[in-house]
Amino acid sequence: MTITTAKLDDAKNIAKIITKTWETAFEDIVSSKDSKKDETFLTTIMKNNISKNLEKIFILKDKNRVVGFISGVETKCLSTYEIKGLYILPKYQGLGYGKVLLDTIIEYAKQFSYKKIYLQTLKGAKNNIFYERYGFKIEDEFMLKLGNNSYKGISFIKNI
């Protein structure tokens, strides 16, 4: 297993990971129509984010295959760093890769004197248990628009 900073060539793999993960991660929460992601569109977004350094993105490779990534951004609150995405291909979930990626971005955030790490996800999602086990606490609930529907969202925060 290796972790590196994402490069432009990684954009397509990142988009594929998002697409594949969304197919199963939120299946009991989000309608299949709203959970379908366009890989070409996501590749364009990720290329833009990488080339303009809009997000810090770390990719995780298993035997030279990109199987997961985590991304984050600075927030308006100078003490808080926000995780924008943590995705691992379904067949690689449960192997400890999520914890490794979280540890990586937390160490990165600490280098810039951030004191907290924040993220948003869907309420009732399978990943909520993972975040709670990792020490994240529920901060807030909100409504999230996906497609033509609204879904309950939840934010988590953790002191680092």
From TrEMBL:
<dbReference type="Pfam" id="PF00583">
    <property type="entry name" value="Acetyltransf_1"/>
</dbReference>
<dbReference type="InterPro" id="IPR016181">
    <property type="entry name" value="Acyl_CoA_acyltransferase"/>
</dbReference>
<dbReference type="InterPro" id="IPR000182">
    <property type="entry name" value="GNAT_dom"/>
</dbReference>
<dbReference type="GO" id="GO:0016747">
    <property type="term" value="F:acyltransferase activity, transferring groups other than amino-acyl groups"/>
</dbReference>
<protein>
    <recommendedName>
        <fullName>N-acetyltransferase domain-containing protein</fullName>
    </recommendedName>
</protein>
<feature type="domain" description="N-acetyltransferase">
    <location>
        <begin position="1"/>
        <end position="160"/>
    </location>
</feature>
<dbReference type="InterPro" id="IPR050276">
    <property type="entry name" value="MshD_Acetyltransferase"/>
</dbReference>
